[in-house]
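Onboarding guide, step 5: your first structure request.
Type a short instruction followed by the sequence, for example:

Predict the 3D structure of this protein.
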Amino acid sequence: AGRYRLLEHIAEGGMGSVFVAEHTLSQKRMALKVVHPYLCKGPQGVERFKREVSAAAQIDHPGIVQVFDAGVDDDGGFFMAMELLEGESIGDRLRREWPGMATAVGWVEGILEPLAKAHAKGFVHRDLKPDNIFLAIDDAGRERVKILDFGLAREVDKGGPTRTGITFGTPEYMSPEQAMSARKVRPPGDVWSVG
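The system replies with structure tokens like these:
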């Protein structure tokens, strides 16, 4: 959209690609998520994108990745500019090593506080898994847990584009009710996924 320069590809997922990008005027570096164009077609794609952008802003917790900007690029795909985090996902860490029980319990505690705020604001994440939890390194060199990717989030009281009987999420981390239907997921389903 003429506002960002892509510098480096850093991740690829089912919803899109993530790049290190630089804002063309401020020169601030951010993480830029570009949603696959085929997922942006129709009202469901538009609604899912809007929900991912607005969820982080409405929840407004330091344990959830900040979204600074969003829009539509030249080929009709959606993009989001987010805080650029240093560190790695819990998934990457676990594939490399087991950190020990005390560290793992600390991660869970770090997940539950922002998750509780998301639930209090009416959002259910629906895709909590080690690859969507980031261990961000702060300015003092400490790790801080950050929840990523609200692309499958749902506002419990408002409904949304998920049709009855459709299942979204990662099977290994789904609660039993989510495996039956993504529409039935409530906050306890997220807590089950954390466990």
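Each response can be followed by summary notes, for example: Residues 101-120 form the longest helix (20 residues).
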